[in-house]
Design a protein that fits this description.
Blueprint (H helix, E strand, L loop, with lengths): L14 E2 L5 E2 L12 E8 L7 E9 L7 E9 L2 E13 L4 E8 L4 E9 L3 E9 L8 E9 L4 E10 L5 E13 L1
Antiparallel strand pairs: 1-2, 3-4, 3-12, 4-5, 5-6, 6-7, 7-8, 8-9, 9-10, 10-11, 11-12
Length: 177
């Protein structure tokens, strides 16, 4: 097998080898276990009173370099929101990035600030700027609890104050790949 023109040894970012080109393992590989459907509930979280039921279905779309999730949150039978997120590893920044689009009409732009083998924590910037969030800073996280459970959470902080939990939900695997 020959090397494509212009791609000599060490010239293709994200690839290794001399004449055989093969993808380098990505930190995203550790999170591909998420593919499938997850469901959970939390009480009096995320600014709501009552039980918030959350579902999320993860897929490798549009390919194996992206992990998408379709989510839905319902409280006491009332739809709170639907979401679509795309998680990917940015090799230039050497960090995870996630974009989450909410049916509310805004987008969370999330950039990893800390990572372990079990958790990714993100700084969040909301677009467009939402008046009710003025003066607040946000952080989110995705955590592997076990092979069958994950947790997603959100924390907020007013200027000059420490972060406090805004809500967390533990989701159990309902269906896998």
């Amino acid at each position: 097998m020959s090397t494509p023109p212009g791609l000599g040894p060490g010239t293709a970012r994200g690839y290794r080898g001399s004449s055989i080109i093969r993808p380098v393992a990505s930190p995203l590989d550790d999170w591909k276990f998420l593919v499938g459907t997850w469901s959970g509930a939390s009480k009096d979280q995320f600014g709501e009173k009552g039980v918030v039921e959350t579902t999320a279905t993860y897929a490798l779309e549009p390919g194996d370099r992206f992990l998408t999730a379709r989510g839905e949150a319902v409280c006491e039978g009332r739809l709170l929101n639907r979401s679509l997120s795309v998680l990917f590893y940015d090799p230039g920044l050497e960090r995870f990035r996630r974009k989450t689009f909410f049916s509310y009409g805004f987008v969370n732009n999330e950039l990893e600030f800390e990572r372990t083998e079990r958790e990714i924590r993100f700084d969040v910037t909301v677009e467009p700027a939402v008046k009710q969030f003025e003066g607040l800073r946000w952080r989110s996280n995705l955590r592997r609890v076990s092979e069958r459970e994950i947790a997603t959470g959100l924390a907020e902080a007013k200027a000059g104050e420490p972060f406090a939990s805004y809500g967390e939900v533990v989701l159990a695997r309902v269906e896998s790949r």
